């Protein structure tokens, strides 16, 4: 999948994978890849700035912990984050329905020509 295809939707994707519970940054990247069937291979340089932005916006809360001698920041969806996720889902449903209506050939109209 082209990286530009994710632009504008990354925040919602991150919020969605945190809906199941807290995760550290790399686990978020793995969850995005797993839930997308491998289509989303996002670099850390894309995901970590988004996590910081979402935390500043109070959509996530983050806490440091030490796991196996390594410090990790674990992120949790806040109440505001859950509300934002619901809004993102509604916007996505509306957007995808509009795009689908335009891209799907209409019945009785030639797919490639003007009627």
Automatic annotation (TrEMBL):
SUPFAM superfamilies xrefs: Winged helix' DNA-binding domain
Entry-linked InterPro entries: Tscrpt_reg_PadR_N (IPR005149), WH-like_DNA-bd_sf (IPR036388), WH_DNA-bd_sf (IPR036390)
Lineage: Bacteria, Bacillati, Actinomycetota, Actinomycetes, Pseudonocardiales
Alphabetical list of Pfam families matching this protein: PadR
Segments forming domain Transcription regulator PadR N-terminal: 14-86
UniProt protein name: Helix-turn-helix transcriptional regulator
